[in-house]
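Holo model, guanosine-5'-triphosphate. Inputs:
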Amino acid sequence: MPIQWYPGHMERARKQIAAALSKTDVVIEVCDARAPGSSRNPLLRELVADKPLISALNRCDQADNERLKHWLQQKPEEFTEPPLPISCKTGKGVAELRKKIQHKCQSFKWFGLRDARALVVGIPNVGKSALINNLAGHRKAAVANKPGHTRGIQMISAGKGLMVWDSPGILWPKFDDPQVGVRLALLGSIRSEILDPLELLRQYQEGLLQWHGAAIVTRYKLPALAQNLNEILHEIAHRRVPLLPGGEADWNAAGYLLLKEFQEGLLGPVFLD
Ligand SMILES: Nc1nc2c(ncn2[C@@H]2O[C@H](COP(=O)(O)OP(=O)(O)OP(=O)(O)O)[C@@H](O)[C@H]2O)c(=O)[nH]1
Ligand SMILES: [Mg+2]
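Output:
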């Protein structure tokens, strides 16, 4: 299933980010702890190359942290410095991130004379605006569980000598590995309206059964571990979502529900890379 999505507004966002760099001291790259490699945007990395960079792995409350740890040990080359696991839901790692920003800025001549300016970048729906609200201590940036919610770049005061740019999430024009597109879609970083939920779940069928099989039995009250995706969808289509007029099962609605509950962490911790 080739997933391509690089609409006009992402190109505009890329230009806005490039323009904001002249008023940026440090860049915070937000990746998803559930797929740290696939959610790292190579286009953004290129764009911010000459700025001090801090990588944060958000949503560690939803990630399979054992598999994440193992992956980071296996792939130390993926990040120039060890990335910081954070959660904007629990607040984990956010104070440490603020310290890291200060530390990166300490050697600059202006340090202590004016506020530090951090630019938060990343793929859509990864939690950039939520991070800014966490840093600020209250809701200043609009947050929504919908990729593409932030449309323009905006400077926000996070107090205690820190200003933060919120930026729209951007993807890159082409996924060299189509599996990266599948993973980003599974994480919720690609608009669900352009996806076929059943095809997407089929692409991840093996992982779903291997890592989430037991949670699926409990959640959807299956009699035993499912052997394939159809068994799960059958259960959901007949018990959890309304039937279509005429009494037919609504497979699409079943697929959307399964995908949504997977993304919400209701089927257990997730790791896709
Ligand atoms: N469980 C969990 N949910 C989170 C976390 N961070 C953000 N969210 C949720 O993820 C959704 C997206 O958050 P946003 O902050 O709007 O994401 P964004 O990266 O700004 O998205 P765009 O502006 O669309 O690029 C919201 O529903 C948040 O509540 C986290 O650490 N854990
Ligand atoms: Mg946002």
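The chain has a mean pLDDT of 94. Strands lie at 26-32, 53-58, 84-85, 116-122, 154-157, 162-166.
Archived with the compound record.
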